């Protein structure tokens, strides 16, 4: 379940720089109109997350390599968020003839090889048609890259083999959030000082 990396605290910044960064990237920025991240801030934030997720990839690869050595594997090791078929993050605007199936889904910046968000749904084709905070996070993230003139390619991938049982599905979702420390999931806002969540609303 990713416990072997749970205590790892990656940082490409010194402690002093990290403290300054956490102030700059205030955990809950009061208004979306605040000063945009600089290129250096945005790049450093992404590198911190990438450094951690790369350790997860490496450990998963090592575990899969020892499958025939009698070692147990976690169900989360069967899911590679980075190789799922990609759909545009605004797929929900399309017209579908059905509501879709039960699934886990993963928001990935394929330009940076960065997993941003993990979620679960019982209706894959309808998941984001209403209000969903992650849509705002994606818009803020993409906007920050456009302002900084950095490449970005945010897509969503669905894993259609999620358990039909809600509790089992949510337990697997939680394991994956904990394992990858996806920065758009609220459980991981504080560790990453996530700068894209903007002003919280109850809408």
Write structural notes for this entry.
This protein has 203 residues and is an alpha+beta fold. It contains 5 helices and 4 strands. Strand 2 (103-109) and strand 3 form a beta hairpin.
Q: Please tell me how large the radius of gyration is.
A: 17 Å
Outline type? globular
Instruction: Give the termini distance in whole angstroms.
Output: 33 Å
In total, the number of strands is 4
- Strand percentage: 5-15%
Name the average pLDDT: 75
Largest sheet: 4 strands, antiparallel
- The main sheet orders its strands as 1-4-2-3
The string of secondary-structure elements, in order, is HHEEEHEHH
Number of helices: 5
Stretches where pLDDT is under 50 for at least 5 consecutive residues are 1-34, 67-71, 199-203
What helical percentage do the residues reach?
Answer: 25-40%
Protein structure class: alpha+beta
């Amino acid at each position: 379940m990713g416990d072997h990396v749970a205590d790892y605290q990656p940082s490409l910044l010194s402690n002093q720089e990290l403290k300054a960064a956490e102030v700059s990237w205030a955990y809950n920025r009061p208004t979306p109109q605040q000063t945009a991240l600089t290129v250096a801030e945005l790049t450093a934030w992404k590198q911190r997350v990438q450094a951690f997720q790369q350790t997860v990839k490496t450990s998963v690869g090592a575990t899969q390599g020892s499958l025939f050595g009698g070692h147990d594997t976690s169900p989360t090791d069967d899911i590679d968020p980075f190789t799922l078929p990609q759909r545009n993050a605004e797929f929900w605007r399309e017209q579908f003839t059905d509501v879709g199936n039960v699934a886990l889904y993963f928001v990935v910046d394929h330009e940076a090889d960065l997993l941003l968000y993990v979620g679960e749904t019982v209706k894959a084709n309808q998941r984001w048609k209403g209000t969903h905070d992650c849509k705002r996070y994606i818009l803020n993230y993409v906007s920050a890259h456009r302002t900084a003139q950095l490449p970005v390619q945010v897509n969503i991938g669905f894993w259609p083999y999620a358990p039909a049982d809600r509790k089992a599905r949510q337990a697997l979702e939680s394991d994956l959030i904990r394992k990858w420390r996806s920065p758009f999931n609220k459980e991981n806002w504080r560790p990453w000082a996530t700068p894209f969540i903007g002003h919280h609303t109850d809408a």
